[in-house]
Description:
This protein is an alpha/beta fold. The chain folds into four domains: about 1-20 and about 135-160, no CATH class; about 30-130, CATH 2.40.50.140; about 245-435, 3-Layer(aba) Sandwich (Rossmann fold), CATH 3.40.50.300; about 445-620, 3-Layer(aba) Sandwich (Rossmann fold). The chain is about 35% helix and about 15% strand. The protein is built from 24 helices and 22 strands. The strands form four sheets. The protein has a seven-stranded mixed sheet with strand order 6-7-4-3-2-5-8. The chain has a seven-stranded parallel sheet with strand order 12-13-11-14-15-10-16, with helices on both faces. The protein is elongated, with a radius of gyration of 34 Å. It binds adenosine-5'-diphosphate and magnesium ion. Adenosine-5'-diphosphate binds near residues 256, 258, 287, 288 and 292.
Amino acid sequence: MRARRLEKLGLKTAQSIIxxxxxxxxxxxxxxxxxxxxxxxxxxLIGTVTDRDxxxxxxxxxxxxxxxxxxxxxxxxxxxxxxxxxxxxLVDQKVMISGTPKLxxxxxxxxxxxxxxxxxxxxxxxxxxxALYPLTEGLRQKDLRFLVAETLDAVSDQLTExxxxxxxxxxxxxxxxxxxxxxxxxxxIQTTLRELxxxxxESSMQFARVRLVFQELLVMQLALAMRRRRLTxxxxxxxxxxxxxxxxxxxxxxxxxxTGDQIKAxxxxxxxxxxxxxxxxxxxxxxxxxxxxxxxxxxxLAVANGHQAVMMAPTEVLxxxxxxxxxxxxxxxxxxxxLLCGSISKAERSRTIDAAHHGEIDILVGTQALLxxxxxxxxxxxxxxxxxHKFGVNQRVALRSGGVxxxxxxxxxxxxxxxxAMTLFGDVELSTLREKPPSRAPVHTYxxxxxxxxxxxxxxxxxxxxxxxxFVVAPxxxxxxxxxESEPLGKSHxxxxxxxxxxxxxxxxxxxxxxTTLSEYRIAxxxxxxxxxxxxxxxxxxxxxEIDVLVSTTVIEVGIDVPNATVMTIFGAxxxxxxxxxxLRGRISRGTHAGHLCVFTDGDLPPAENERLKLLEKTDDGxxxxxADFRLRGPGDMLGRKQSGMPPLRIADPLRDIDxxxxxxxxxxxxxxxxxxxxxxxxxxxxSQVIRRYGxxxxxxxxx
Length: 704
Ligand code: ADP
Ligand code: MG
């Protein structure tokens, strides 16, 4: 019976039993002060017996009473018909008493309390922590505690230690330096499991937890470091180093001072590009943080070294925008720039492809769809991918040229929390632009309820009269559909509950606004189901100022730059993730005029009562919002954990354990630098754990 229940919980082997770790602990209350006891409230206390007496020795009629005192007062304890207590409870003895006191006259009295007698002061225990296990379906916590204790006793000396003592020692030092409290050596595996299941104190339980969390993260980071190393030694790229002269020439072209973060990112990129293995760097930064400058620097660096660069954008509008920016910045130089996108004539297209092939174009800009075709560059050195939201450990793009791999720089405005970048995308290097270029106008965010609609639209009309342009965003294309259009972050998180609800749709809103409130303005509709050319034309017209109001799904989320658009209304906001809303908000922070975003939700709950949306109102920091998304919705939702191909962690939580993760990552890197295949004899257990857990997934096969 018990065996079957255990099996149901997945506890078939001794191994699975002792690694079924407590989810929490029951911590008995510490002894009470006598002056804080309350009538009829259970309590325990420690004190000294100062007096005792028995009223009658007649069996069946005796009353034993004793006085127990400590610095905080005195209580009386009473036992009826337990004359033998006279032999157990002596004057001057230290005792612990647990029970429910009652007030009798001015004194608290415990009738038949539990009494523990201590021989000496050292025996006085701190109240014991008891493990609370997850999923005990059909089993009592007590049974599980017993089973675990039994198993632990039986197999404790057969446990394999994957972290030899010197490693546990250096880990403790490094964790200590990072501000994590540890003993001088992390506990060995026996002590670790013992302390987790039967803690002797809060701190030793914590040390045990740190050790196991560290171990899990170290194993993962070792796997990732091995993989990084293999990638970098297997692939060859042209080294594209910078010099003071090149650096000065490139910087000279920008009409503004770079921000500190841009300079730092440029340094990181240049360092990577000077190596003979491919850069694999993710440049993340909030909308408007100036990622393009870093990308342009990298491309010019490639060209300065006699190589070509390509830049891919997800939409044609964006590709054109980059093309024009590059043209402007490089106007008086010899750098030749080409553009490839859908609306270009066939003849011109083949001319461009031909020129790129013969090395007559230095920088080729285009949409991804086109550039992934069979374009043969003469001497490709760098590939920049803009506004890429989805990465996976296994993602590398197959764009090669003459047998060498180009360096990769991938840019994203959906910030990935550092913890996630280090776990899910361990082989990608990360550069971050946190600082924004100066003199950006702020965006005001308002959480509105339906009662505000009239007021809001008259505000919008005032801005329109001033010549500004306006976005209106809703989650759905048509009202009747159950489908939510949410690009490019994938599916919305509440799709399942959509069927019978009123969800704002762009078609309904478009009809309503164009026939009533905004009928005097040039208003257009945009969504993912429109034919590509039509979408293209509409976005371009809006960018060119030929449209005043664009009613759109989230297709506008991706990097389009229309500085004159400063007002946005979002309907059905509860359907969107925070990072996505922030990304949308970024569309109206491009110019010198302050932006205004008004957020409405569908249904009864006004946005001001939605915890997530309140955060959006409160902070303008994309990283903070991404962290919150990660916490509230899980990483899978944000970027597709499945895609990343990493197994889930069992004990560690990257968000909570970010400091331990950072130490594990640094140490893993150092260990692999020193011993690339972990061949040292004392590392053999550790290595087999790495291979067992990650070998297949990360394709580390032949290391084993
Ligand atoms: P994003 O990171 O969203 O791609 P962009 O690279 O498009 O941002 O930059 C947004 C705007 O800020 C552009 O108009 C760009 O010219 C400007 N910009 C970038 N860096 C700076 C800087 N250091 N100082 C002033 N303006 C800058
Ligand atoms: Mg951009």
